[in-house]
Amino acid sequence: MNQHIDANLPRTSSDSQLDKPNIQKSAVYNIHGLGGSQASLISDGKKSTMDHLREVGPWCRRKYQQVFRKKILYKRVPVLSWLPKYNTDDFVGDLVAGFTVGLTVIPQALAYSSIAGLPAAYGLYGSFLGCFVYIFLGSSKDVPMGPTAIASLLTFQATQGVWQKAVLLCFLSGVVELLMGLFGLGFLIDFVSGPVSSGFTSAAAFIILSSQVKDLLGITAKGNTFVQQWKSIFADIHHTQLGDAVMGFTCIVVLLLMRLLPRLKVGPPDADQQTTLQKIINKTLWLIGTARNAIIVIVCGAIGFAMYTEGQDPPFKMIGDVPSGLPAVQPPPFSIPEVVDEAGVVLQEAQSFGDMFSSLGSMLIVIPLIALLEDIAICKAFADGKSVDATQELIAIGVSNIANSFVQGYPGTGALSRGAVNNASGVRTPFGGLYTGIIVILALLFFTPYFFYIPKAALAAIIIAAVVFMVELRVVKPMWRSKKADLIPGLSCFIACLALPIEYGILVGIGLNILSILYHAARPKIHMDQLITPCGIKYLMLTPDRSLIFPSSDFVRNLINKHGLKNQTPVVIDCTHIYGADFTAAQVIDTLIKDFKSRNQMLLFLNPKPSVCSVFEGAELEYRVFYDMEHLEKAIQEIRRKSFQA
Asked: What are the residue boundaries of the STAS domain, all occurrences included (predicted)?
């Protein structure tokens, strides 16, 4: 046996337990030995090529049965679970919700295109096909696929408004999301803590707001970071257009007031006690408040139409021509041709796929992670206690983005604002996305000529009135009360996102989180208790609060040695909270045992887990282990008695 047991001591039940791991260990060795002999016997019998070919069919059948089990199929294609139970109530709920979200997504798509630096049509191109795909693969009824403010901002920073790069980014990010889903990498979002997520979202809100100030004031401004944007704004602020500013600020005020309408209630608070008229009024107020973006776009578009005169400058800037009809279904562009004007000046340099790929850089990882973060936020917000399958959501948004890239869409995911509208509208299943997609298609087919007259200031107002509520100031106070240290990664991420390109900012936050995790793993806390046996022998009980792994091994050894030298009493390591160990930790524990042995000081182990024992056995440690306080204290007394007799 690896453990050392004094033969003169009476065998206790705790000591007898030490044999069990060794019996199991030897049995495992026997099995491994038998497996090795069998393998050598099999290898002696040569197989022909035909024998190997015959094994291909059974192997494929086994893999097919493992992958295409009914349970797995229903999990990976969720529509199979709810579609057979679809009824009239589901149809009505999905129709109302889909129509309402459609009224929300059209103005948002037009506005978000400006954040991405793309023509307005590209926001609409990315707002319908993904909805159809999500019906089949999505696991949440509340997720409306399409462009989001943060995804649009990241797209702009990666592509600088080049539509070919934006469409290719949609395709490649979809591929990355799909691969992450197939390999079960949804757990990666667990490394983005709440404080980092809040810091990133708040910084993104400030950057998005800053990017819209130019349209709000009718000026020209550029910049990738918050600081660069405001430098450019102040450099051109003296060119502010009065018409754009009046239109923009008026729309912001109206939007913020309309946002309050759903909270107004006529009649008793309980809906069951309200009259039919009161219910109609309340529902109308809710619908007006929910569709406020669409109402602003329609009203401002009508004003723009009335004030536009061909050949004269309008009082405010308009979004201009939007191509009519559906986009062509074609593969995403894998290269950019050279564009030369009539004078021979190169307007756009040619780029190969390699050039485009390298220019996208880290965004190919950042965008999928942020897309998943936004999507999971919606799923959790309306899950009603149900578990959220991050892997399935990765597959759904990945395939949706791949599909969107074939209709010239740019990266999208679920938007929390539209998810809230979807849920409040009474959506029953993901089938609501069908009606949202149809609304967008109808807009592309019949209403694009009227989009020409929509003022840019109105779209900027829609974005600003939405993103101001993305600044998560509400989390600072409870974070300060609960754990002040959590403010460090949150504030660091916030500042870094404003000062640096946003992808570096979130990497700073995640990096600080990982450093914090590593620090706590390398510096476990050890609780110390001075105890006395019934016979009056003092001993020291040390209880580490977490597993022993290589970063913490030397720290734990030095701390235990320090307490051992200071007290010069038997030391017991309580392993109750040690759920795992590695080889490095086992080597350090072996050195620790030798340290105590060299100074004739007792070191015992209490309640180690079987997994920890197996690691110690593999390293051939000689150690004493107990699973009962009574037997432990008897052993301490017996060892002390024998040492006095010697």
From this structure: 540-639
